Structure formats: C-alpha cells, structure tokens
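Deliverable D4.2, example record:
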Amino acid sequence: MSDARVSENAIVIERTFDAPVNLVWQLWTDPEHFKQWYGPTGFTIPVAEMDLQVGGKRLICMASPDGKMKMWTTGEFTEINPTSRLAYTESMSDENGNIMDMGGDYPTTTTVIVELTEEDGRTKMTMTHEGVPADSPGASGWNQAFEKLAEYAGTLQNNE
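Output generated by the structure prediction step:
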C-alpha cells in the first residue's frame, strides 16, 4: 500500500511493509542493506557510506542500469531516534562529497525524514523528502525504491 500526498515543495509517501520495524530501520541505516533497495528499478548503489550519528556524514553513489551514469549525493544525519525517526540532509555531490550546485530552481540541500511505527508486526512508514516537488521524477524513483525495499525485506524474512 502506498500513498503519495501532493505538496508543492515535498514528496510525502506513506507505505506499510510486511516487516517488523527493527528490520525496516536496518534497511535504512545499514549501508549493506541500503545498497540492496535504494534507487529506482534497475539502478544500483555501488557506494553507501553512513556514519550513523547526529552530525555523521552520508555519501551515496547511484549508478544507472548501464553503469555509465553515476549520481553522487552527500548529507548529514540531523536526527536519529532508533526504530522510529531518521532525518538527514541530501545534496548532489561529487565522489568526494563536495556539494554541487545544480542551478535552476533545484535546491542545493534537501531533507529526508523517515518515520516508522510498528502496527501488528508490520511497519507503517512515512517518508518526507522536503525541497523536492511531489510531481517531480523523484516521487516515481522513491516509489520504485520502496517496491524494492518491500521485496528485499520479504527475502530477508524468508531466509531467517
């Protein structure tokens, strides 16, 4: 189940996963798990570095299906409440984490907020990506990533 709310300056997606909240938290915060689901269908994550503490840095590389295009983002964790709330900034960057100005109306820094609640062994997630319009391609990318997250979570649970 997925619900994208329309907002002029934020993507808001609500989704319920058939997975316990501890697992969904790990999928967001453990770099090896994050690499398995993040990004639109067909994209891979060759690099995911996360220093999971407030003020800790993130550096993510997302590669296109053919591997020819690599998009780097960097950011900083601004809030960490284990298994319930995660917030971090996100900026386009180079491979060294140097922030790049994308020009135009695209903000240099956006904020991602993930809120998780356990409901009968399942996890309700609300993800807000502030600074990115709901009608942007980013909304589709997030929804595709969450399809991958749901599938990966199911695979992990079946292998327990």
